[in-house]
Amino acid sequence: MSEQSSGGGRILPLRPGGVGGPSSRGRRRREPAKARRIWTFAAWVAAALVVVGGSGLGLLWFKLNGNLHGVDVNQALGEDRPKNIDNGSMDILVLGSDSRAGVNSAYGADEGAARSDTAMVVHVYQGHKTASVVSIPRDTLVERPACTDREGGGVPGEQRAMFNTAYEVGGPACAVKTVEAMSGIRMDHYIEVDFTGFTKLVDELGGVSVTTTQPIHDAKSHLNLLPGTHRLDGEQALGLVRTRKSVGDGSDLGRIQLQQAFTKAFIEQVKDVGAFTSPKKLLDLSDAATKAITPDSELDSVNELMGFARGLSSLGAEDVHMITMPVRYDPADPNRVVPVETGARQVWTALKQDRPIPASAVADSAGDQGEAATVVRAAGAAREEAP
């Protein structure tokens, strides 16, 4: 994927101031009477899902429902899928699309196809108290299965295909099928977010606070940050999660570490928003969130999306463990990576059995290594509005 400019606004200074484990699933848990706080799973780095719980939106349901446009992944995939194990856990494929179509043309020329710039498998353990997130490097060489494209046509399988081409040639259904073939785990849901949705959602949050331990100057993303604490607006946040060449070894694996760090900060920021004390903030966040995402057809209404999010509302950043799928650089092409079979098998087996991912799974991986993991972190709990 080409790395086009994302623009970078001014930095707003702040005023001074084993691995994820199971706990119970319950895809359909009885929701508590008291409204719960907003819970966000960054799906572009999340990719970004923000759904507001509670009552009182009433007539606004029609507006928010109109923002949602789902994709019927289940129909496209048919029955040739891993077994649906109903053990109370939940698996979600979260993709960030690099499409330059429509309003996303600000980030580069539309080449007629999009790829999955960011891919995360989110496993929520039984009880929905903890979660593990496995980032899949976009440059991973995989055996892409034959699948159905957006128009219902057939797409042949391919050996040693880059992982992110699955979305390019076959859309969401092909991306899901590729992940299911790799992992042996059936995805319960699919959520996609694009450039514009990501930036607007961060802006509606009032920015996201991060602390950098070294300068970040990236000409591709137009991001310039000195060491210290910063409140990033939407464009700067997008620049950070797309930064590659100027941090660590300049690889996509280093960028994934930045994305994971930003996700933690993003989740922490959501906890401090205070939407329930401001009806306008509640509405603005709901509107931005439902415009930001493309969910699967089982989450394409406000009621369905709210029920899904409420089931995750007890999760905080400290409850989410993030790793990169175990990979090594491909001996035949140093610009690509291939799965470390033993480590990857340990990861997927643990998630399939709803168990913590063992530390040994990533011991021989080129991911989760290097200095990029230490460059960015959440700014901490003390966040005041910038002047």
UniProtKB/TrEMBL annotation:
Residues 1-32, 359-387 are annotated as: Disordered. Residues 370-381 have a biased composition (Low complexity). Residues 115-271 form the Cell envelope-related transcriptional attenuator domain. Keywords: Membrane, Transmembrane, Transmembrane helix. It holds the Pfam family LytR_cpsA_psr. The keyword Transmembrane applies. The keyword Transmembrane helix applies. Residues 1-10 have a biased composition (Gly residues). The chain crosses the membrane at residues 38-62. PANTHER family: POLYISOPRENYL-TEICHOIC ACID--PEPTIDOGLYCAN TEICHOIC ACID TRANSFERASE TAGU (PTHR33392). Belongs to the LytR/CpsA/Psr (LCP) family. This is LCP family protein. It comes from Streptomyces peucetius.
